[in-house]
User: What shape does this take?
Amino acid sequence: MTTVWVPGDAAAVSVGADEVAAAFEAGGAIVRRNGSRGMLWLEPLVEVETDTGREGYANVRPTDVEAILAGTASGLGDLDRHPWLAGQQRVTFARVGVIDPQDIAAYEAHGGWAGLRRALGMSAADVVAEVTESGLRGRGGAGFPAGIKWKTVSESDADLKFVCCNFDEGDSGTFADRMLVEGDPFTLIEGMAIAAYAVGAAEGYIYVRSEYPHAITALRRAIETAYTHGYLGHDVAGSGMSFDLHVRVGAGAYICGEESSMLESLEGKRGEVRAKPPIPAISGLFGRPTLVNNVLSLAAVPMILADGGQAYAALGTGRSRGTQVFQLAGNIAQGGIVEVPFGITLGELVNDFGAGTLTGRPVRAVQVGGPLGAYLPPDQFGLPMDYEAFAEAGAMVGHGGIVVFDDSVDMARMARFAFEFCAAESCGKCTPCRIGSVRGVETMDRVIAGDDPHGNLALIDDLCNTMTKGSLCAMGGLTPMPVQSAIRHWPEDFIADGHASEEARP
Assistant: This one.
C-alpha cells in the first residue's frame, strides 16, 4: 500500500488538509500526519513515499487524490532538494515536516533525547556553561543572552525553582512557535528538561495562547507520552532527577507575552506587568527563582547539548549566534518558515525566499519584529538580520516575524494602528502606556485629517519620547518604534498636501 504524508499543522488544516487526508484513506493509502514543511503557499503539501524518497505534491485537493495514487499527477520531486528548503539550514526545525510529531520512536531515531542524555552526564554548571558558550540569545524578541539568565537562576538559593516556557506567541506575522510545537513537540519538552536540570528546577509550565487549540492538543499528548517513556516524572531518563511539566492556557491577552505578566497569569491573577527589580530569575513564579524562555530558545537547547556549544556558535554573525526561524507573512508571494543563520539580509528573505509581493506590486514597507517593530523601506534591504545591526538602524529583529506591504499601503494609518493596538492591549498599569496610546490615536487622527500636521507631529514626537522613557515594559516602550519609523521613512504620508485618503490610494 502507498504511504502518504499529509500535514496536520493548523495552517494546512485551514486550507483543507483533513479533507485531503480522508480522501487518501478512502483511496486505500496509508496516511501519516506530519508537521508543515513551512512552504505555506503550497499547502496542503502532500508527500508520497516512493522507492527513491518522498515525492511532494502542492495545493492538493480531494479531487487530485486519484491521479496522485495512480502516478499520473505532476509533482515537485524530493522536497529536500526544493530551492526553498535547500537554501536553508534547519537546526531547530530539522525534524518538522519529516516525522510524525507524536511518534517518540521516530523522534529518537532522528537524534531526539541525545542532548538530554549528554546533559544528564554532565554537571549542571557545565550544562549552563555549554549554553553560554553557544551564544544563544532569547528568541522571544529581547535577545537577552540565555546563558546569563540560566546562570542567575542556577545560583539562586531556593527550596523550589521553576522553568516556564513563554508560548504566548501574539505578534503579527509570527507563527514559528506554533509550527514547532505542532510539528515536533518533543524538542520543546527535551529543551525544558535540560533547562530544569541545569538550573535545579523540579517543575515546569508551558503558557500557551488560547488561540492555538491544535498546539495545545499536540503538547498534552506529547507530554503524556514523555511521562510514559520516562522522560518526565520522578526519574527522568533513569537519572534520578524529578521534573514535572504542565500546560496552562492563556485568556487572550497580548500583554501576557511579557514575562512578568505571564507569571501573574500563571498565578491566577490579572495579566499585569510587574515592576523590576526583582527580576523573575531571582523572584518569579510564586516568588521563587524562575527561568523564563521562549519556545524557540528552549527548542534550540537539545542541539546545543547534543553537538556542543561551539557547533552552534559557529553559525551566525557577530554577537548573533546560531540560526533564527524567520516567518514571512503579509503581502508576500511565498510565505512561510525560513530557518537560516543570522546574517542573511532582509532583502534576501523578502525577495529571494519570499519572491516579492503576492499582488505583484512593488514592496513599499516591511515591518520586522511584530506590531511594535520598526517599518523599513526597500532601500534598507541590505540590512543583515543581526541584533546589533538592527538596533543601530533603529529597528529590532524581535521574534523574527516579517510582514510585507506593497505600494498601496498608507503609512500614516499604519502609525495610527500602532497606537490603537497599544491602547487595546495595554495592561493599564503605567500612565505613559495607558494614556499615551489613547492620546496617540487622537493626535494621529488630527494628522490624517490635515489638522496642523506639523504641530501635531511635534506632539507625537514628545509623546513617543515619554512612552519610551516612562513605560514599565516594552508594550508602551516600543510602541513609538513603528510610529517614528513610519514618519521618518514616509513623511509624505503625514502632511496635508501629500496624505492620500483610502479612496485615493492606488
Remarks:
- The first strand starts at residue 3 and ends at 7.
